[in-house]
Structures are given as C-alpha cells and as structure tokens.
C-alpha cells in the first residue's frame, strides 16, 4: 500500500488536459494508491477542500498522467485520465476519487506511477 500526499501546485510541465483551465489551488491530495485490475491501471485517493470559505462548485475535474519505467531507467508516458465531479465540495470536506486508464498490456506496467495530479475547472 502506497500513501502519498500532494498539494495541488502549478504543474505546467505535463498536463493531461487543456492548459487554459482554472486550477483549483486550495485542495490536498492524500492516501493515493495505485493498482492493476484486468485491463486497467487504477489510481485512487482522497481530495480535501482546504479552503475555510470557498466551495468548489460542479462541474470540476481531477486528472493525472500515468508513467512507467523500463529496465534501463527511462521513464515513459502511458497516458492521462481525468474524472468529472458533479458534486459541490464545501470547505473542509473530502471526497474519494478514482482514475482508470484502460490498457490492453497492463501486465507490462507492474510498477507504474502517476504524476501531474491536479484539480481544475473549465
């Protein structure tokens, strides 16, 4: 079981979606776990609205990129995924989330990782 904590910072390096979106900067990602299920790479965790006054109104999105490393230490992008959230997230409230990346060769990515995790609004 892997537990990671991410603040939602500016990740201008590698974005899954459009660059012209409004990133939500008052969230905390935690309890992030990754696993492989049949033909999917799965990442899940908890996102918390750390604002004391701002409610995140729908629709809003969570996204990340999936990566793997070969035996020579090279890192490769597998792809990116996002999930649309259709609920409000009030101040201090948390939400469990899951991102699935379909892959017919998921057995090749036993040690995959995620990065570029962010929350945003269109």
Task: Write down the secondary-structure element order.
Answer: EEEEEEEE
Annotated CATH architecture: Sandwich
| Beta content | over 45%
The strand line-up of the biggest sheet is 1-3-4-7
Mean of residue pLDDT?
A: 87
Could you give the count of β-strands? 8
What is the percent of helical residues? Answer: under 10%
Query: Could you give a short account of the major beta sheet?
Result: 4 strands, antiparallel
Shape: elongated
Which terms summarize this structure?
single chain; 122 residues; mainly beta; Immunoglobulin-like; four-stranded antiparallel sheet; 8 strands; disordered N terminus
Question: Can you walk through the features of this model?
Answer:
The chain is mainly beta and 122 residues long. It has one domain (6-12, 19-121): Sandwich (Immunoglobulin-like). It has no helices and 8 strands. The chain has strands at residues 6-7, 22-23, 27-37, 40-49, 60-69, 75-85, 94-102, 113-121. A 4-stranded antiparallel β-sheet has the order 1-3-4-7, with no helix packed on it. A hairpin with a 2-residue loop joins strand 3 (27-37) and strand 4 (40-49). It is elongated and about 45 Å long. Residues 1-14 have low confidence and may be disordered.
């Amino acid at each position: 079981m892997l537990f990671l904590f991410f603040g939602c910072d500016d990740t201008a390096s590698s974005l899954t979606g459009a660059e012209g979106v409004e990133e939500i900067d008052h969230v905390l990602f935690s309890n992030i776990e990754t696993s492989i299920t049949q033909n999917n790479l799965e990442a899940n965790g908890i996102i918390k609205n750390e604002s004391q006054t701002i409610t995140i109104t729908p629709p809003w999105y969570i996204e990340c990129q999936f990566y793997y490393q070969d035996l020579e230490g090279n890192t490769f992008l597998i792809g990116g995924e996002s999930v649309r959230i259709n609920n409000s997230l009030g101040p201090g409230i948390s939400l469990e989330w899951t991102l699935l990346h379909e892959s017919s060769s998921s057995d090749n990515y036993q040690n995959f990782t995620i990065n570029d995790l962010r929350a945003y609004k269109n």
